[in-house]
Amino acid sequence: MIGSAFFKIHHEKKILISPDIGNLSEFFFDIVESKENLFLLFDEFIDYIYNDYTIIINNSMEGWNWVGKFEYDISVGNIILNPLDWILEYVKLKNINSNSIKIYTSDLNCNDNTGKYSHIFTPIIYFNTFISFTDDYTALIDRVFTKKFLSLNRRIAMRDYRTSLYAFLKINNILTDSYYSFNSNNAIDHYKSIYLENHKLNNEGDFYSESSVFYKTSFCNIVTETYFDNMYHLWNVDTMFLSEKIFKSINNCQPFIVFARHGYLKKLKELGFRTFDQWWDESYDNEVDSRERINKLLLLIKRISIYSVEELNQMYIEMVPILKHNFELSMKNEKYGKYDSFPRIDDEIESMVLKKIINE
Asked: Which of 37, 212, 219, 283 has the smallest number of Cβ neighbours within 10 A?
């Protein structure tokens, strides 16, 4: 649900960015509800468009392949048309530049998996500025670890790889050396809900700001990304989503291994970040077969778990230059390879059309 009607303005980049709209399908069909209302919303900013501004529908919080989603919904009769065609129709009707209206998304593969709508989508690096930065950046070598791993898995529905990870950690007695959560949000009844150090989150905002002590006192973050393969949804085939999970590690100067799609670490490196193949085997990132990738990841966790906490403290000191590089790159918040970062905002303007829609 949209909580604001204010569009952010970046005058230098000449863009107007909508509030975060959450679920793009709900935005079109439940909030805006019709092509006519969408056109009214665009008309409100037509003078900006005529002055070469771009209107951005902000879906940066998600990494779905929305073209695939809409095509799927049409095929099963949930909807009868693709709302992205409304944008194409408006552009043609007003005879404006085809890039005048765009959608921000965190699917970095969006320009390869959206067909004739690819020009509408702009992949964006968003979550680096959404996560707090550690306050001990200048004193990383003074960190003292009491745990070897941090493993946060609040949601497990349709994410079997997280269940497999938890079972592995439990069977191999690695949980005793870990801070962890499991099935603590949208819980599945036949699994126990385990909260991070028995701390139940009070609201969604808490999810993005766990106490920094967990990052400062554990060596390695076992990051379980939102998408591990194409099993989660049919419409997320071949997406590449860098969520808040990886930036929790980066912004807190913590080494990581990642349960994600193959090529995830390669993508991080394309953005300028560095990983940890100097200290352990990261060939899991090249493994296309999901089962084999999980096996390689679990074997890697087992190997790291054999080290003593003292040995991991020493290894961490060796990693500090890479951790600082990643921290500084994330904080810089400029262009990451060919991808833009979410822009800093100069000004804002309230949409009377969107305000009316929200309040109806």
From this structure: 283
Euclidean distance between CA atoms 285 and 185, whole angstroms: 28
| 170 and 111 together in one domain | no
The answer on 115 and 167 residing in a single domain is: no
Residue 109 counted as domain residue: yes
Kindly state whether residues 309 and 350 are assigned to the same domain.
no
| Structure confidence by residue, pLDDT tens digits, 228-279 | 887 666 667 789 999 999 999 999 999 999 999 999 999 999 999 999 999 9
Q: For residue range 318-332, what is the model confidence (pLDDT) as tens digits? A: 999 999 999 999 999
| Same domain assignment for residues 91 and 216 | no
Residue-range definition of the domain harbouring residue 185:
137-332
Number of H helices, E strands in the chain: 12, 11
Within its chain, how far is the Cα of 295 from the centroid? Answer: 24
The Cα-based distances of 211 to 87, 130, 135, 215, 256 in angstroms read 42, 15, 12, 8, 18
333 contacts 129 by C-beta, under 8 angstroms: yes
pLDDT (0 to 100) of residue 116: 95
| Confidence bin at 210 (pLDDT 50/70/90) | low
